[in-house]
Design brief:
Elements: H1 6-15, E1 16-18, H2 25-41, H3 44-51, E2 56-62, E3 72-76, E4 83-89, H4 90-93, H5 97-112, H6 125-145, H7 149-159, H8 162-180
Parallel strand pairs: 1-2, 2-4
Antiparallel strand pairs: 3-4
Length: 181
């Protein structure tokens, strides 16, 4: 774990909200420490983007739904003044640390890439699915650009079947090559 940074610790206290009283104190501390780690490993320019609130966001810890679902980022508001709410379920708090970190990094990829709200997505079902897949790839590609590929791979390999991981990795590599080329 990185050295304690009081600025990051204060930032986490202000931006993380527990929407449930069922999360015990020890889990709350663990989640706070893990989130501090996430912010401490971000590249300086990304961390500055978040600390200065150029990208406004909050993290909300909610009870489990009974169905295993992933973390998600919900953008609201008009372009230029959006707020992003990252929703983490209690089950995610029990993830191994590197899986938790990888999951949160992907969501921060959505925040930094300015994921638009769903009402701004394409209308047709097929176009929406392709758009969502492109946004996920974009968020993963950002995590790779930040030099944190190993956390992304931990998340991907625990979330998707191996043949999907291979395809996702190929898509990320293609996206990164297009951006460089």
């Amino acid at each position: 774990m990185s050295q304690h940074n009081p600025i990051i610790a204060d930032f986490v206290k202000k931006h993380v909200h527990f929407g449930t009283k069922t999360v015990d104190l020890e889990t709350r501390r663990t989640v706070a420490m893990r989130l501090e780690k996430v912010f401490s490993i971000l590249p300086e320019e990304v961390l500055d983007l978040l600390l200065t609130e150029s990208r406004r966001f909050s993290i909300l810890i909610l009870p489990d739904t009974g169905l295993p679902i992933g973390m998600r980022t919900k953008p609201t508001g008009p372009s230029g003044s959006r707020h992003y709410e990252i929703v983490i379920r209690e089950e995610h708090c029990r993830f191994p640390e590197d899986l938790f970190v990888g999951s949160v990094l992907r969501e921060l990829g959505h925040v930094t890439a300015e994921l638009p709200p769903e009402d701004e997505w394409p209308a047709s079902r097929g176009d929406r699915a392709r758009f969502k897949e492109r946004q996920e790839c974009r968020a993963d590609a950002l995590v790779w650009k930040w030099g944190l590929r190993h956390y992304s791979m931990r998340y991907l390999s625990d979330t998707y079947p191996p043949h999907w991981v291979d395809r996702i990795v190929a898509d990320i590599e293609k996206m990164l090559a297009e951006e460089e080329g």
